[in-house]
Amino acid sequence: MRNAVELQKFKVELKDLLSLFNLTRTVKEVIETTKGDSFEVRLDHQAGDNFGSYAAGYRCFLKNKRNQKELYIYFGAIYSYKKQAGIFAEVDQNSNKELFNQVWQYIQMSEHYDLNKEEAPFVKLFLTPLQHKGIMEEPDADKQKELLRLFFNRVCEAFVNALSVEGGK
Question: CA-CA distance, 110 to 107, in Å (whole number)?
Fold first, then answer.
């Protein structure tokens, strides 16, 4: 059976592939080394969808230290003809059946990320265009990592804050 999506011409430079490799290594290190006052994060090395047909990144467990609620999130890059592309973190309903509605209802907008709830059943937090530009134009790998860590820390805080709202299940 032929794929329903029409194939399009592509051009990938070898440096682009190496850059994607470097991004995913950086994402992994950010997940493994990020510490938060209100959360703990743990990489899931075994996740079958760490790298998919339209995403490059990692699944991880995000635990709220205040109430011990835990989300299963994705952090990395997404690229698809039918989804918003970019560097992001997401909570999906399928992996978070008991807590998804609370995240959906209580996640807050912020200047620190672009909130996308239009691709249900997902809550996606993307780098803003200005953040993306700043990271891509940063010549120092360690500074890029710290900018990604700052973003990841903020989205983790946003997710655990949604889990901390009184009245949430």
Answer: 9
Residues 106, 168 contacting (CB under 8 angstroms): yes
The C-alpha atoms of residue 157 and residue 27 are separated, in whole angstroms, by 17
Eight-class DSSP state of 50: S
96: which residues sit within 8 A by CB, 6+ positions away?
A: 71, 72, 103
C-alpha distances (whole Å) from 10 to each of 7, 13, 17, 117 are: 9, 10, 13, 29
- Which token pair is 59? 């699944």
The answer to whether the CB of 78 falls within 8 A of the CB of 54 is yes
Residue range 90-143, pLDDT digits in tens: 999 999 999 999 999 999 999 999 999 998 899 999 999 999 999 999 999 999
**Burial grade of 64 (CB within 10 A; 0-12, 13-18, 19 or more):** buried
Higher pLDDT, 168 or 75: 75
**C-alpha 62: how far from its chain's center?**
12
